[in-house]
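Morning run. Coffee first, then this:
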Amino acid sequence: MATRGAWSRSPWTFFGLVFVLAAPFVLLGEFSDVRLPANLPLSALQFVVPLVAAAILVGINDGAGEVRRLLRAAVDVSSIRRRIWYAPILLIMPGVTLVSYWLMLLAGQPLPEPRISWPTVLIYCVIYFIAGVAEEVGWTGYATGPMQQRWGALGGGAIVGTVWAAWHLVPYLQIHEPAWAFWQCAFTVAARVIIVWLHDNTGRSVFAAVLFHTTMNVTYSMSEDGWAYDPAFAAPVMLAAAALVVALWGPKTLARYRFSSR
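And here it is:
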């Protein structure tokens, strides 16, 4: 009988599989000039791959019932046990964006007048929530637990974040310069540490990871519709946020607040 649950998972097999399954999407983006909304390349459609890879591996090792459980976890609102955590989940990314925008102003960057289309934002929220579910079923629901068990919260998060960034690298380069891609990869690794922190402090909620992932993608897409975004400014802010989290909650678990009264 197969071992059930997270103990039977192989994150390194998962990492290899997501690159293999993403290859057709990467090639599609490389040889087609068609763009998705927010000027994304067709390779962005690889968002389905982490879900597919996780479902394949869990289905083989643990059966269809465990696959259904994995999928349900990504949309389980009740998994966020302390509602106060909705504040960092929903506000960190807008905060990072505003601080980075202020830094760009200080640096004298030529910036467009901020413009927000709320109907467009709502559409993005729906689209990117679906994409966030597909990605976080794999990155958080499948891979994060075993990686934390082996490397600790910070180490596991940094490894998953590095793989996550590498998986996005070619799509980044298909529409941006190498310097932009470098800083966006740094941003991506730091964001994964934040996601692990949110996950571990919300009862290991995959839904929390999905919501934060959604805010990241919505913010980026708004930059293509009249809002400035430059990872050379956003990445240091996100790295600083991740460093603060590590300092206050500790690298081993990211869940033991240094100044807790308990």
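The chain has one domain: 8-249. Good start to the day.
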